[in-house]
Design a protein that fits this description.
CATH topology: TIM Barrel
CATH class: Alpha Beta
Mean pLDDT: 94
Number of helices: 13
Helix content: 40-55%
Shape: globular
CATH architecture: Alpha-Beta Barrel
Distance between the termini: 28 Å
Largest sheet: 7 strands, parallel
Number of strands: 7
Low-confidence stretches: none
Number of domains: 1
Strand content: 5-15%
CATH superfamily: Glycoside hydrolase/deacetylase
Radius of gyration: 18 Å
Structural class: alpha/beta
Amino acid sequence: MKPNPLLKKLGYSETDRLVILHADDVGMCQATIPAFADLWESGGISSGALMMPCPWARAAADYCRAHPGVDMGVHATLNAEWETYRWGALSTVDPATGLLDEDGFMWQSPPQTQDNADPEAVLTELQAQVRRALAWGVEVTHLDTHMGTVAHPKFIPAYLQTAAAAGLPVMIPRGDPQIFVQMGLDSESAAAFAAFTTQLEEQGLPLLDKIEFMPLDRPEGQVEVAKQKLEALPAGVTHFILHPAADTPELRAICPDWPSRVANYRTFLNPEIRAFIKNRGIQVIGYRHLKRLIEEDDHR
């Protein structure tokens, strides 16, 4: 595959390795907010994304408003995955939209949403989430996706339309079919979507080379895991996901994977990781850099 044109646009060489250190699930619960704040203020992350339907989204938005320049996107949320801690949609309480289960909450799993939700209802919900973030004073830098649910042929148009209307970059990798197979598409759909992303890139949409993530099933040894994953980054732009959260009774009650979320937080708060990134010549950027490119293209 050809080098990512983003590298040249951002002033880097074709062999440079760029990484967006990204905190997912901000505002999902209270424990995510101090974790994000600590990591942002220490330089342990370069971006994050808000789960707008969740109970603590307003408090997270308050933090963004009090700290101008925070690189915060909207984490397109179409699922409420936990057993006892749930949320509904912003845009509707109508079960006919297919967005909601029999209890009035978003479905727990991506396949349930993909099987049931009407694409127009998904579009309306994504637009509502972006609008609310903007109304709460968040300088939204991008639109990414919770649990990859929008990575489905019938939802991708809504995802792209919502982002384009707000002038936001998206979390979409470049045209490698295998990446889309790993995201859950069948081989035929993956090939078609890979061809589609190539067209998007030719139209100037900023795309990623890789999506990497810290594990949520292995809390031990995460400093070494992070180093191995960072060392293996390819040339281009990588969206590197972690799910940081402080260790609180609330987090423990909500998430069976809470030890790994706490480990994600403590690992990237560790100055050893920042030193490792610097020593390996890895360049840390945020989505604000990509949004700026879109704004520049719009003014040409």
